[in-house]
From TrEMBL:
Pfam family, one: Snf7
Top-level lineage group: Eukaryota
Annotated source species: Helianthus annuus (Common sunflower)
Protein name: Putative snf7 family
Transmembrane region(s): none
Amino acid sequence: MFTRVFGKPKQEPNAVTSLDKLNETLEMLEKKEKVLIKKASAEVEKAKDYTKAKNKRAAIQCLKRKKLYEQQIEQLGNFQLRIHDQMIMLEGAKATTETVDALRTGASAMKAMQKATNIDDVDKTMDEINEQTENMKLIQEALATPMGAAADFDELNLRN
């Protein structure tokens, strides 16, 4: 019922649709500018023709219209500049938002990893690694010790 009275709520424009809209507007302004440039050139040509025909009043009217077209062209140029500024700002804001989102994701992942690992687990794991390393050293020393005739031979060679 409220949607009938108040209408549907407007959707928040996102960066992509806003950039598309700005691009469309920019293209439209560029087309208008080209048309106005052609009209201004046409007025200059008309003024030349009227001057040749000794119709000074009509030539002045053409030059006045040309001046009005030039003012509109300048205004369109200012609009285009503002749209370019807005596009740059939107692209910067989009990059900033994406960066912050990526940082949030990284922070959340790091937080989850830290919750999964606490210092007691790390200490216990390091103790187990040290114990296994010591056991491996003992095994390697036992395997490296000569036995039987080889052990006697080494001792005899050392004495000589």
